[in-house]
Amino acid sequence: MRKPVAALACLTLAGSLSLAATTGPAVAAPTGPAPKPKAGVSLGSDVLTKAVTVRGILQHERRLQSIANANDGNRASGQPGFDASADYVAATMRASGYRVTRQPFTFPSFTELEPATLTQTAPTEREVETAVMEYSGSGDVTGELVPIDLVLPPTAEPSSTSGCEASDFPAAPADDAVALIQRGTCDFSTKVTNAEEAGYDAVVIFNEGQEGRQELLQGTLGAPVDIPVVGTSFEDGQALADEATEVNVFTSTDGDPAAETENVIVDVPGKTKRPGQVVVVGAHLDSVDAGPGINDNGSGTSTLLEIAQQMAAKKLTSKLNRPVRFIFFGAEEAGLLGSEAYVASLRPAQQDKIYANLNFDMLGSPNYVRFVYDGDGSDSTAGPVGSAGIEQIFTRYFKVKGLASAPTAFDGRSDYGPFIAQGIPAGGLFSGAEGIKTAEEAATYGGTADEAYDSCYHQACDDINNLSGKALNELGDAAAHATYVLTATGKGIYPDGSRQATRTPAPRAQAGDAARR
What we know:
Blueprint (H helix, E strand, L loop, with lengths): L10 E2 L3 E2 L28 H4 L4 H16 L10 H16 L3 E9 L3 E12 L3 E3 L2 E2 L6 E9 L29 E6 L5 H10 L4 E5 L22 E4 L1 H10 L2 E9 L4 E9 L10 E7 L13 H16 L10 E6 L7 H9 L2 H5 L1 E7 L10 E3 L13 H15 L4 E3 L8 H4 L5 E5 L8 H7 L23 H21 L23 H4 L1
Helix pairs in contact: 2-3, 2-6, 6-12, 9-12
């Protein structure tokens, strides 16, 4: 990644491969003048950032795609495609001289056997676009549709408490009944538990209606439930609320409450100057059941593999200031379960040895933005002490390169959540998921306004064609830079310059706004 590339097209992978890439300038800040590259400013990480290339990242992406192709089109935890992905990561890292530990754990698996359907059956009949909620039960329910404490039209900011309280639910009709619930401020699991306890036989949850909360709703309940639960868009949910009196909900699902999966933990053999300050660099290895997950999160996985390989090839691993530990987490898509299992496995003294956590989840979105986790809380809730220092490493890098960046919330949406819950500082990068790019962002970063950052998020089309080479180039270099700074240079992240601040656990993170709320 020696310099930005405008696009990568017509690469060869058993033929012609086209990579989507955003176009247009990528140097203007949302407000104010465009930043300019700072001539002559050395960031000190060139030895690694020049070695890490888009070509190297794509070699791993292609292998992950091949693995998905050979395993029912996905790499989901508990499925053969994940096991093959873990084997590939372990073999690749051992070949580069790393020590590999495979940490098994159990989790509740979930499989959709047949596509879910949602049909308005009265007063007129029509099919409604829908998606099963992860951990939904199986069922074929036709019953009265009962709206539950809806906020229509929606407020400017997410605020609906639809289904969050048991008192929201009127007594269920004597015959089969379906609760119509609006997305909002509490977990989907809370809504469904309340509905089930009130006697409802199925649940439809529709998106809340604000910008970024309008599309078809897909998510996880966090744990298996007995009744069928599906999601739908705000438009279809509002239409059901306005006119439907009866609906049919069909789901066909299966699962194992104690399925097996694993984390792949990669350590540098040998000693470092500060062995008690481990830098954990993580990415989740699993995809959703629906597709191969080549952006989410093959892009983070492949970037970590390339960084680790090049650190070994450039002999950086023999002269690190702090130890680096690369972790490829399982079962993130099921609710951050791999990172939770890893953090829970550590004794307090071992947790104290983690100096920082870097997290890379989705680095190649076709309609991307250079998002940096908001460690200092300038645009959201701050991370634990030290997180602001990590954010500054990324933002300074982009500023020196003349590239705009923007903060993105510490909302617990990825595997840094269990770390910050224990007061461990964290940071990372994100190129965008199902959220909608604004006109202001399009003017700054290129791409298309009013379209999702990744229109294939959590879908079968998240394949090798669903990548921006430009995003991989820019965010991959930034990921390599931060890894180098924290491990090779020993740069501190605490405001008083101390080795490590007193940790204050952050509020317990949810598994993600799109995932659970």
